């Protein structure tokens, strides 16, 4: 297992303590192996990044994005780096998570089934 700096661990803990409304909703869909028996972690460090939700078994990350992520070059770079490590990144707008949670859950299920 790769070394995770203490600052990254602390930041992940802080993010878990104060989730956004969309993150709360998404966690209610992902927790407890509700989607095809896959286990997710919240705010999981993959240094130097922190994934909103991560399924280690399938290497699928689920990200809840607000307006600050609109076409972000940082996000594109981050996604490329994570993909090079074998991660598949699923990004959902916060508004979509809140308005269409069933559609989001179905998309995550499809991604997991294609990875299994």
From TrEMBL:
<feature type="region of interest" description="Disordered">
    <location>
        <begin position="1"/>
        <end position="20"/>
    </location>
</feature>
<dbReference type="InterPro" id="IPR047216">
    <property type="entry name" value="Endonuclease_DUF559_bact"/>
</dbReference>
<feature type="domain" description="DUF559">
    <location>
        <begin position="8"/>
        <end position="112"/>
    </location>
</feature>
<protein>
    <submittedName>
        <fullName>Primosomal protein N' (Replication factor Y)</fullName>
        <ecNumber>3.6.4.-</ecNumber>
    </submittedName>
</protein>
<keyword id="KW-0378">Hydrolase</keyword>
<dbReference type="InterPro" id="IPR007569">
    <property type="entry name" value="DUF559"/>
</dbReference>
<dbReference type="Pfam" id="PF04480">
    <property type="entry name" value="DUF559"/>
</dbReference>
<dbReference type="GO" id="GO:0016787">
    <property type="term" value="F:hydrolase activity"/>
</dbReference>
<dbReference type="InterPro" id="IPR011335">
    <property type="entry name" value="Restrct_endonuc-II-like"/>
</dbReference>
């Amino acid at each position: 297992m790769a070394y995770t700096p203490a600052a990254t661990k602390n930041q992940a803990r802080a993010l878990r303590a104060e989730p956004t409304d969309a993150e709360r909703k998404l966690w209610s869909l992902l927790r407890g192996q509700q989607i095809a028996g896959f286990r997710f972690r919240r705010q999981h460090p993959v240094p130097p990044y922190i994934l909103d939700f991560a399924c280690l078994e399938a290497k699928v990350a689920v990200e809840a994005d607000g307006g600050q992520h609109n076409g972000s070059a940082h996000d594109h770079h981050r996604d490329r780096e994570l993909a090079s490590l074998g991660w598949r990144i699923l990004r959902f707008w916060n508004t979509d998570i809140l308005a269409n949670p069933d559609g989001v859950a179905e998309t995550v299920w499809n991604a997991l089934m294609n990875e299994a």
